[in-house]
Prior knowledge:
Its main location: cytoplasm. This protein is of the alpha+beta class.
Amino acid sequence: MEVKTSLLDNMIGVGDMVLLEPLSEDSFLENLRNRFDHNEIYTYIGSVVISVNPYRSLPIFTPEKVEEYRNRNFYELSPHIYALADEAYRSLRDQDKDQCILITGESGAGKTEASKLVMSYVAAVCGKGQEVNKVKEQLLQSNPVLEAFGNAKTVRNDNSSRFGKYMDIEFDFKGDPLGGVISNYLLEKSRVVKQPRGERNFHIFYQLLSGASEDTLKKLKLGRDFSKYNYLSLDSATVNGLDDAANFRTVRNAMQIVGFMEDEVQSVLELVAAVLKLGNIEFKPESRCNGFDESRVKDKNDLKEMCELLGIEQSVLERAFSYRTVEAKMEKVSTTLNVAQAYYARDALAKNLYSRLFSWLVTRINESIKAQAKTRHKVMGVLDIYGFEIFEDNSFEQFIINYCNEKLQQIFIELTLREEQEEYVREGIEWTNIEYFNNAIICDLIENNQNGILAMLDEECLRPGTVTDDTFLDKLNTVCAEHQHFESRLSKNSKFLTDHSLPHSCFRIQHYAGKVLYRVEGFVDKNNDLLYRDLSQAMYKANHSLIKQLFPEGNPAKVNLKRPPTAGFQFKASVGTLMRNLQTKNPNYIRCIKPNDKKAAHIFTESLVRHQVRYLGLMENVRVRRAGYAFRQPYEPCLERYKMLCKQTWPHWRGPAREGVEVLMADLQVPAEELSYGRSKIFIRNPRTLFFLEERRRQCLQDLATLIQKIYRGWKCRTQFLLLKKSQVVVAAWYRRFAKRCRNLCRNSIKTSARKLLRELKYQKRCEEAVTTIAAFWHGTQARMELRRLKQEARNKHAVTVIWAYWQGTKARRELKRLKEEARRKHAVAVIWAFWQGLKVRREYRKFFRANAGRKIYDFTIQRIMQKYFLGLKKNMPSMSPIDKNWPARPYLFLDGAHRELRRIFHHWRCKKYRSQFTEEKKAVYEEKLEASEIFKDKKALYPSSVSQPFKGDYLEISKNPKYQKLHSAVDEKVLLADVVNKINRANGKGAARIFLLTKNSFVLADQKTGQVKASVPLPDLTSVSVSTQSDGFFALKLKEGSASAAKGDFLLSSEHLIEIITKLHRTGGTSADREQLNIDISDEFLVQFKQDKVCVKFIQGGPKNGNSVSCKRKNNRLLEVSVPTTA
């Protein structure tokens, strides 16, 4: 019987790349493009599935498709991921072979979706039952949880997995799932603190802020505004087609299904909120007496809220951000952290907190989904891990990812060749050695315990002394110089030492997928991945239920002075465990390819796909597969498919299938070197032979179809003719007999029949009329009875309504009458009571009435009103602050004048009280502030920010600091102001640090490091000061022409305390009677005299590319341009 379907039937392009002829990279890509254009996204390389991401929904993942591929041979239908999943599941269930499915590809290629499709297919085809369905639901619902905490939006993919995942699904002997175990690899925790432009942080942060209820956010001390959190990028905060609020509800539901308790979910959300709060903690420098800076927290509100969330004492965590304790044997040394080190410690804590939380989530999920039975399980592993990465800037992350892919490629080649060899031995065919590139030498270059790159990196991280990325590169150049797959500027394998494609700080490795250039910057820090012990101990002291589990090394009772293992060592160990696990299972491969960078359907970018084909090693896979025999097939299907090509085997072969195939191939004159006959299969060496057989079969099928059509049409025509002929004879005989009988009967009975028929028709008509009349009468009777019933019902309803209305009216009138009577009685009582009260009052006061009684009553009333007014004023007296404009409202119009006068007197009195509290120093400070306001208010943008800052004067503590003792002794007068300023160089616009001292009679500029006096200018020689209107700190001190101080020209300086310096200069000049008032020029463009030349200083608004700092650049000999950032 002919096989109904096959991989070779109705094929678009070539479904199996092993059969591609001719085989080249261009033909490989053209075949992929052809199939992609026809919505064929899956292609085989032997048993390997190539999956091209369509970026749209296709109708090929329906329940009908699941049933179509269920229990079917791998090559029986067109290529599909369901075919591979079914093959793996049936091998596990029927042959008791543990399976693993390896899914690789770059970000956006569809690896996560492929793993979901595999798991959903296995869940659909395995057994049913309440317990089985619960296990399947938990396994499937673990994906949304891990995606929320481990996936993020990147420029390549809106749902990119930022970690590697391997899941072992365990089955019983019937093939029903019992549970699973998940392993995670290398979470990209650096994304927590910094994201590239156009990308987002992990999904859970945005889902929490968008989807959590107001009550939940209040408990977590969070708000919905993304811009409030420094760790969240704002340019891609919202993603089209991604509903963060709905996804948050999905994650909460998935966590409940997997088995998380409500308090565990709350603890996880508290840690996520703590990470957001941690990113908002900022630091400021604080000078110490030893001249070093110490970090201090700027705004402690976020620190306080974070400590409340985690149950940590605020002082403990604040100290951990300012000091670091180093333990060596029996000694402890505490050192201060500067601002940069404090920010490093903050980010390191955030990364460790999130990555440990993610590892705890994986462990918690494993506890819920692990198999409960103790019997032996069958296992199917699904590996979803990063593909080979070649970027413009490759660092430590790309290095270890590519190392993992080298190991996967090595195991792929080994297992593929082993499978080929086992099949040849099983079929009794001589094994021929297959030439292929063995990448074991590259793996050894990276992982060798003695002189491998990872070993040298660990050794460099652990050795004492100064360790930098450059010293690590020097060590690589020394040890790996002669390795054929390692290149650097100093290695012997580089083409020449001046190769500009190979920078000094880089090295290159020849991977199986091509050469990759790695930049060593950051290798040492990323491999160390240090978290200060003070922070670990601070975390361990938390009262939070989860924090102690995440930071066990912080336990003071278990202090371990041994350094923790490096990131490279841990990853190498994880990869080794993974490889040993995979080698015990039968592998199945899915290679995912991204067709374009636009994430759009129907676009196939050949250069991008070519790049992926190279680094996935697909051409290498095809060549290894084709090195032996390109095609193999059991004898029975082969004979069934091609038996029509030989007269001896068509239409039925009576002997064994192998003999029939041998006769068939001999009749077709296929060369013997193209074929090999195994015990159960025929092996075809070259795809051309297979295509020759297919072409002959297609021609033969056309000839057979033509022959069948010809025979069928002839048979159909003959049968139709004989049937018509027989029918004509029968019809003619019956007609002749019927005509004869009719003629005899007609003459005898035509009259009788007519009269009988007439009587029957009349009787039938009378019966029909009687029936109609009876029915009409009956229907009329029924209608009248119904009408009477409806009328009676209507009358009853109307009567009830009338009675009810009358009763309600009666009740209402009675109630109204009662209320009116009650009101009249109350009114009468009130009137009588008023008359009685008036009578009593008149009797009481009648004895007091005289001729002047009205005047006395008036005076008494006025006195009482005034008393009440003053008591009310005393009770509602405003505060003693002079700026408080509140005053009680005037109760009576005749008090208007007194009310205003009292307000004026009170204001003058409290101002006097406020002034009496000032000391002479405080009064001088306020006078300086007042003078600064008169000079700069509404004229310079920097002024508002200086209002809240007190004028300190001596910022350097020059009289106390021993560093400046020599300089202080050189100045005879009292120092009014001492600060560090930048002297601007006209040649390049850069600043040199100088100490600025101001006394009553002069100002001095000295070198900051040596304290040597560079210039001393008497104040009478200072004519004016020029500043801009913007928020910069630049100012020009213009000297009197012809004076001795003006020999070198004017001074162009910049300072953070510009407002205070100019105010003190103006005030010092104004207090002396023999000096002219100092002129302050505020303009965005002014001239400065440098020796003999005048230079224009111009201030402009800077763009976003200039950053947040003021920059000064020289445009030409006559122009200095100062770029000031735009203030929000």
